[in-house]
Design brief:
With about 350 residues, the protein is mainly beta. Helices cover about 0% and strands about 50% of the residues.
């Protein structure tokens, strides 16, 4: 007799007969079948097959029973991405609710991930993609859940806004951009991490900006807003990046000193290039905390001035330009800037 075999699908072999079979002395028969689950069990051992052997000579009856439980595993990340509530593509430190129907076993993890009891079992992915595994065991059976844990791969700037510092007409400077920064890929959630621009003394300064007057902004240090941690939200949004090009650019005199008197000295071509690496760590970091790992690709922020005093700042493939005639351009289009303060 079979119970609840409708929860299984025959894959191969021959199912045992539904009626009794009579065997002659010395005769044997064998039935062998492979099944696949069609739906999960309602309770442990609810699928079973019972075989009864009747010995005609003695009248004795022997019975053997085989019990099965089909367990369905379900992973539900906190962050719903693109309508896939049970995706197995996850970001580092992403939290996933782990469910089993019926729950007759135990969840296990190896590596840098964590199992948490937050009104039910949750798996928190490791901080770096390290080959960690998640599995479920019930009795002698164990199943490794297929997870693909990805790290941040890139940063993307959106919704650029040109910023003005109110430098008077006929003077150079006062240009910047505000950029909304997102972490890629967007197919996962990075809401369990924080990111920063790593302070650095890598970069270059040429021409006009070689003047020691600009030494403070030669490199992207903490003084220039590097090392500012920001938690990532469920939409992978970081924060507003202030790519600003300073206030007023003075004239440079022949002796190398600078002056804000437009009747002496001049501007000349020059560039500052900041080589900026982004890094991530667990959320709620404090200034000075080190990142767990940097992104593979750094980004540049570039300031440029020409001999006419036109100043520009470029970052994340966006560029803001301000001429001494107070005309502002953002990515080539004339725009009305937003006062920085």
């Amino acid at each position: 007799t079979k119970a609840n075999f409708d929860k299984l699908t025959l894959v191969s072999g021959n199912e045992p007969p539904e009626t009794s079979v009579e065997l002659s002395p010395g005769e044997s028969r064998r039935w062998e079948a492979t099944y696949a689950p069609q739906t999960h069990s309602a309770s442990e051992g609810d699928i079973h097959a019972d075989v009864h052997f009747a010995e005609n000579l003695s009248g004795d009856v022997y019975a053997q029973s085989a019990q099965m439980t089909v367990v369905e595993l379900e992973l539900t990340p906190w962050a719903d991405k693109e309508g896939f509530p049970h995706r197995h593509l996850l970001g580092v430190k992403e939290a996933v609710h782990c469910r089993a129907y019926p729950d007759v076993g135990t969840w296990h993890e190896t590596g840098g991930g964590e199992l948490k009891d937050w009104d039910g079992p949750y798996y928190v992915c490791p901080l770096v993609s390290d080959g960690s595994t998640l599995s479920y065991s019930a009795g002698s059976a164990s199943y490794n859940v297929n997870l693909d844990i990805v790290e941040p791969s890139a940063m993307e700037a959106r919704s650029p806004i040109a910023m003005s510092f109110g430098v008077p007409e006929n003077r150079a400077g006062g240009i910047g951009m505000n950029l909304r920064i997102y972490v890629l890929p967007e197919t996962v959630s990075f809401s369990g991490i924080a990111m920063e621009e790593i302070p650095s003394t890598q970069g270059s300064h040429t021409g006009y900006f070689e003047n020691p007057y600009f030494a403070k902004i030669w490199y992207h240090t903490e003084e220039m807003w590097a090392g500012r941690w920001g938690n990532i939200d469920y939409e992978n949004y970081w924060d507003v990046d202030r790519a600003w090009g300073g206030d007023e650019m003075p004239h440079e005199k022949q002796d190398g000193t600078v002056t804000f008197n437009l009747n002496e000295g001049a501007w000349r071509n020059g560039d500052i290039v900041w080589n900026i690496s982004w890094g991530w760590a667990e959320k709620d970091r404090k200034p000075g905390d080190s990142p767990a790992k940097p992104l593979a690709t750094p980004y540049n922020q570039e300031f440029h001035i020409d001999a006419s005093g036109t100043l520009s700042v470029s970052k994340f493939q966006h560029t803001a330009v301000r001429g001494t005639n107070d005309v502002f351009r953002l990515n080539g289009d004339v725009v009305q800037p937003t006062p920085a303060y």
